[in-house]
């Protein structure tokens, strides 16, 4: 899977979260699903969207920063805000380059 440039990621993210197609897709996900696809618990859709950690969000199964399609219904699932953030953080941490150090055992 090719890594995307920061410009491509920004363009895909902006496209995914604006306009009528996104609002329609978001409404469709909210209407069709009732459980968080990550933790499998009920999502209270009456909670305030940006303030409450258990509020509803639409999560992209294949993240946009990895080339996921922003407006594909098959790529979007209902999730709690907290679950969505934690999953994204874990994915990013797993992809982060970690330096490795080797020590010659004969010098110890």
Describe this structure as you would to a colleague:
The longest helix has 15 residues. The mean pLDDT is 84. Strands 1-2 form a two-stranded antiparallel sheet. It contains 3 helices and 2 strands. The protein has 108 residues and is of the alpha+beta class. It is elongated.
List keywords for this structure.
3 helices; endonuclease; alpha+beta; HNH endonuclease; 108 residues
Helix/strand-derived category reads alpha+beta
How many E strands?
2
Radius of gyration: 18 Å
Largest sheet: 2 strands, antiparallel
Q: N- to C-terminal separation?
A: 41 Å
Strand content: 5-15%
Mean pLDDT reading: 84
Shape: elongated
Order the strands across the largest sheet as they lie in space: 1-2
Provide the low-confidence segments as ranges: none
- The H/E string reads HHEEH
Task: Give a topology summary.
Layout: H1 6-16, H2 19-32, E1 56-60, E2 76-80, H3 81-95
Antiparallel strand pairs: 1-2
What's this, in brief?
With 108 residues, the protein is an alpha+beta fold. The chain has three helices and two strands; from the N terminus they run H-H-E-E-H. It has helices at 6-16, 19-32, 81-95, and strands at 56-60, 76-80.
């Amino acid at each position: 899977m090719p890594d995307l440039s920061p410009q491509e990621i920004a363009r895909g993210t902006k496209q995914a979260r604006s306009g009528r197609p996104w609002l329609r897709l978001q409404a469709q996900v909210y209407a069709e699903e009732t459980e968080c696809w990550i933790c499998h618990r009920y999502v209270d859709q009456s909670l305030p969207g940006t303030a409450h950690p258990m509020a509803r969000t639409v999560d992209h199964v294949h993240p946009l920063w990895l080339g996921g399609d922003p407006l594909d219904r098959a790529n979007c699932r209902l999730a709690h805000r907290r679950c969505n953030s934690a999953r994204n953080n874990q994915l990013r941490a797993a992809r982060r380059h970690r330096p490795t150090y080797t020590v010659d055992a004969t010098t110890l």
